[in-house]
Design brief:
Helix 12 runs antiparallel to helix 21. This protein is α/β, with parallel strands linked by helices and 513 residues long. The chain contains 21 helices and twelve strands.
């Protein structure tokens, strides 16, 4: 079979995932077995989306697609590792105790060192710089000189790197960057005939070396991405490698998301990017809207789905608090509502309970979490009390039965009087949201960083063009990365784009949209 190498340049909403799925189908029709097709990506989300789309479109089973995975997952499996070998929270705690330095401890299983190491503590900053240096394949001292901030010291960084590496060797531990490096060192391409790579603009220099190994055998090689949307530079994204990975380029020209008015804003941003690959793409046949606002109070949040995008977690949190103060319920990028689901369930269950319904022990226990001891229940009946574990989980109890057997003493009043552990501000917040008629459990408003919503879309998007000092300083020295970030942000909008005027933000540094 003749060798085919092509890069599909996909501007926002132009159907990169569908083109990927169609190419998988063509490979199969041309005689390539599904288990000989590698469809790799930068993030787990993209890998799952690609696999789901292909299975849905062409009736394939997940088990028959062993190479539909992230690069880290492929390296993990190729190396025969177990998760017990991977650096985890306990390891970082031990390192921190030895170095006198705090590290964030991951609460769930991750697939990249970038996610695993966190961003908030002194140790996180050093570990991320270490990981970045390895991702871009550059000398530690050079990277420290260019990217280290005023809070960091070279001797401390050097000590951390030395100690971290010694710890891994002594305890026979690895991190995800090690897996990629080992895969490259093995220099053995899997038995594949086609290689498809999604989100290729986000791959680091090290990951491109892994891609070089994967390119040794397959006759079909296709890369999907958009250099204008390469916003993972902080993780070592090698935009030049993406731009040069194949001679043949094909632009997907029709967006099915971005309306005309938003397209104009996007084009005004992308034309500022120096060295971008030329591409022309068309908006969908709908005018759409772009508005400027002096504050959140002039944005019509009372209906429709909304996405508020800020540059950093700290800024996203600040605007989340402003929404809360105004009585709007929202969710973060993980889907967690601004009102705890456990509290919402307790309120609904309490209201049903006082009207005569019966509740299961698990529901009653949840209510007890929001009752004060000796006020809502007698001593010895806390939610952690042994008595709850002795109850039949399938037998529901009335409120009178709970008074008799579970020490309930809370008055048979509305929830805001009965649930005494709920503070007054939260009570007013919930009451305000309910008066608005919002779906409190599944809020219409999402608040996130721009990076947290890459690949997402919403009918209505709010942009907070505020920058912290670090972003502003980098923007002044190299504006390209910041242009890409705000290009991605603006193009999440399907109907309307709302821009908070830079004069209204509470900081001196803003990106000029």
């Amino acid at each position: 079979m003749n060798k085919t190498e092509v890069t599909y340049l996909g501007p926002p909403g132009t159907g990169k995932t569908q083109r990927n799925s169609n190419l998988v189908r063509k490979c199969i029709e041309d005689g390539i077995a599904p288990d000989k097709i590698a469809n790799v990506s930068f993030t787990k989300r993209a890998a799952i989306e690609s696999q789901d789309r292909v299975c849905h479109d062409w009736g394939l089973e997940e088990d028959g697609l062993p190479y539909f995975q992230t690069l880290h997952s492929m390296a993990f499996r190729a190396g025969g590792y177990s998760y017990n070998e991977v650096i985890a929270g306990d390891d970082l705690k031990a390192l921190g105790d030895y170095l006198g330095m705090e590290f964030s401890r991951p609460k769930k299983r991750f697939e990249t060192d970038l996610e695993r190491f966190g961003f908030t503590t002194e140790g996180d900053r050093y570990l991320n710089l270490y990981s970045y240096a390895r991702s871009v394949c550059k000398d530690y001292e050079e990277v420290f000189r260019v990217r280290g901030d005023d809070r960091m010291q070279w001797p401390v960084f050097k000590l951390l790197v030395t100690t971290y590496e010694k710890y891994k060797r002594f305890h026979q531990k690895i991190d995800f960057t090690d897996m990629i490096e080992h895969f490259i060192a093995m220099d053995t391409c899997p038995d594949i005939e086609a290689l498809l790579c999604d989100e290729a603009q986000d791959l680091s220099t090290l990951q491109w070396k892994m891609i070089s190994v994967l390119r040794q055998k397959p006759s079909i090689q296709a890369f999907f991405g958009d250099d204008d949307q390469a916003i993972m530079n902080f993780a070592g994204a090698d935009v030049a490698a993406f731009q040069q990975c194949t001679e043949k380029k094909e632009v997907l020209t029709q967006s099915y998301r971005v309306p005309q008015a938003v397209h104009e804003v996007a084009e005004s941003i992308s034309k500022k990017i120096v060295g971008r690959l030329p591409k022309t793409w068309n908006p969908r046949p709908y005018q759409g809207f772009v508005f400027e606002h002096l504050g959140l109070d002039s944005i019509p949040l009372h209906e429709g789905e909304w996405l508020l995008l800020a540059r950093t977690n700290r800024l996203a949190d600040r605007y989340g608090r402003l929404l809360r103060e105004a009585g709007w319920v929202y969710k973060n990028r993980h889907g967690d509502p601004s009102i705890a689901l456990g509290l919402l369930d307790a309120i609904v269950d309490w209201e049903a309970w006082i009207r005569g319904a019966k509740l299961l022990p698990s529901q009653i226990k949840q209510i007890y979490h929001y009752l004060k001891a000796k006020v809502g229940y007698r001593e010895g009946y806390a939610p952690s009390a042994k008595i709850f574990s002795t109850l039949d989980a399938t037998v529901a109890l009335s409120i009178e039965e709970a008074r008799a057997s579970l020490g309930l003493t809370a008055p048979k009043e509305i929830w805001k009087k009965a649930l005494t552990k709920v503070d007054d501000e939260t009570k007013q917040y919930i009451l305000s949201a309910r008066r608005r008629g919002d779906t409190v459990k599944n809020p219409r408003i999402t608040v996130s960083t721009i990076h947290g919503m890459k690949g997402a879309e919403r009918d209505n998007v709010i942009l907070v063009p505020e920058l912290n000092w670090a972003s502003y300083d980098e923007y002044r020295s190299d504006p390209n990365p910041e242009h890409r970030v705000w290009y991605v942000a603006a193009t999440r909008a399907k109907e309307s784009l709302h821009i908070l005027n830079s004069n209204s933000v509470s900081h001196h540094y803003a990106y000029p949209i």
